[in-house]
TrEMBL record:
<dbReference type="GO" id="GO:0020037">
    <property type="term" value="F:heme binding"/>
</dbReference>
<dbReference type="GO" id="GO:0005506">
    <property type="term" value="F:iron ion binding"/>
</dbReference>
<dbReference type="GO" id="GO:0009055">
    <property type="term" value="F:electron transfer activity"/>
</dbReference>
<protein>
    <recommendedName>
        <fullName>Cytochrome C</fullName>
    </recommendedName>
</protein>
<dbReference type="GO" id="GO:0022900">
    <property type="term" value="P:electron transport chain"/>
</dbReference>
<dbReference type="InterPro" id="IPR010980">
    <property type="entry name" value="Cyt_c/b562"/>
</dbReference>
Amino acid sequence: MKSNKLALIALLVWLATVAVFAWFFIRGNTVAGNDGRTAVVLQAGERDLILSEMRGMLAATQGILDGVNNGDMQHISQAARAAGMAVTVDASPALMAKLPLGLKRLGMSVHRDMDDIATAAEKGRPPAEILKMTSGVLTKCVACHATWQLRLANQGSQ
Ligand code: HEC
């Protein structure tokens, strides 16, 4: 009887641990932002990494549009590929754990879209199709920016 109780307690503790991990996995390290968005709390180095990745995304978008305007498929493909899945390898597991699941999903899908645009350009797809894909990516940029912001952790030593 007693060992049954212990087993039940062990099971409950285990379930609680799993629930806490799941909660953090989905929510990431977030607090309510000051402008209605959700703020992801990061160390300075982590924030810098994401912001530099963002500036890369903006540069890629500009490069794609530039390439479309000049009919330069190679330029489109190079610009888009530079913001493809390959750039995500820089993120450490600690940073990944702090990012909410929805943000990670959206971020990954944008990198995948960039690779798709690069491939479409390499295959010589029509400019209208490339513009449509780019417009779809920009919708995701806007959606993510409307939902999340980045905030520095005060107690950080990084
Ligand atoms: C998955 C979420 C997400 C996606 C997708 C996303 N961003 Fe961002 N981006 C952010 C967050 C969060 C910030 C920080 C905003 C803040 O703190 O107010 C940011 C900041 C930026 C900045 C500011 C960089 C700086 O140095 O301050 C630029 C530029 C930017 N994003 C461009 C883009 C472009 C272009 C795209 C699409 C091709 C894009 N982002 C897609 C989340 C995202």
